[in-house]
Amino acid sequence: MDFRNKRLSVSEAKEIDIVYFLSSLGHEPAKIRNNDYWYFSPLRDEKTPSFKVNRRLNRWYDHGLGKGGNLVDFAILYHGCTVSELLQNLSGNLSLQKPSLHQSFTQPEAQNQIKVLGDFILSSTALLRYLQQRRMPIDIADRYCREVRYELNGKVYYGIGFKNDLGGFEIRNPYFKASSSPKGITTLDNSADEVIVFEGFIDFLSFKAIHRQDPEDRFDFAVLNSISFFETARPFLEKHNAIRLYLDRDITGKNCSQYALSLSSKYKDESNLYQNHKDFNDWMVNFGKPQRKHQNKS
Fold first, then answer.
1. Cis, peptide link before residue 182, omega less than 30° from 0
2. Is 42 exposed, middle or buried (0-12, 13-18, 19+ CB in 10 A)?
3. Alpha-carbon distance 9 to 17, whole Å?
4. What does the pLDDT average to over 117-135?
5. In the chain, fewer beta carbons within 10 Å around the N or the C end?
């Protein structure tokens, strides 16, 4: 069966709300002033937000790069793809879930509408390419993830699925980040004395890739799947002698780590390992590279 939709034209792609598109990639504004949304640049490292989106005009400008334009201009820079490849992905199985222009889009709404139709071995070329861009060995991804076919608003899409303890999936593809219901944490209990904690499963997979020679039962693992589930995870975490936190280096992640350190001396913040990066995977992807343009951090 062919699940592909009618291919978007360039003009239609340009109409996609850039603020929404950035949010779907995991980038939220650092500040908002009238119609101007300011971000830490998704295209490079910086400490002061200088990437601006004018919501009214639906145009972006990166002051550090001296470049700007419409959504298509941004997306081909961010993903390192051609216009044709971008339109194919926006129109096909990995379609961006596109609301009406300027319509507000909330994560809970998307979660309520997602219906998982089935899960399979990872095989989609586009998804495998996405994993490659994240420097993820396919055998590691195969061990912990599935290719999920899901329905949203009457359309069928594909994504990389990571199952939680309640049976729901965290779902990722190059354009979309969401969850199916029920949402919860994912734990791997190997009866170890130490537990490693991650905010998202891409970071967990990255850790497993780097430590692939470790004995399988060296650590237990907890993937929160949302920082809001930290309290839910505490009973599992605190039965261990040591709790090592590898949370994101954003404000929310740092605050959660500081809160955890105040609870018990069992907690240890390991995020200094990637202090100049967004998260563990971003550090792994860019390890050894000059500190400049970072791509595909969704």
1. yes
2. buried
3. 15
4. 89
5. N
The DSSP element (H or E) to which 253 belongs, if any, is helix 251-263
218's tokens:
């060296």
CA torsion, ordered 15, 16, 19, 20, to nearest 10 deg: 160
Residue 136 and residue 284 in contact, taking contact as beta carbons nearer than 8 Å: no
- Rounded-to-10 torsion of CA 140, 142, 144, 150: 140
Q: Which of 119, 132, 96 is nearest to 5 (CA)?
A: 96
Q: Give, in order, the Cα–Cα distances in Å from 25 to each of 33, 96, 237.
A: 22, 10, 29
Average pLDDT, integer, range 60-78? 90
pLDDT averaged over every residue in the chain? 83
Return the number of other C-beta atoms located less than 10 Å from residue 15's C-beta. 14
Dihedral angle computed from the Cα positions of residues 156, 168, 18 and 37, in that order, rounded to the nearest 10 degrees? 170
Residue with tokens 């779902």: 171
> CB-based burial of residue 199 (10 Å sphere; 0-12 exposed, 13-18 middle, 19+ buried)?
buried
Q: For residue 41, what are the CA distances in angstroms to 49, 112, 145, 167?
A: 7, 31, 30, 35
Q: Provide the 10 A C-beta neighbour count for residue 28.
A: 11
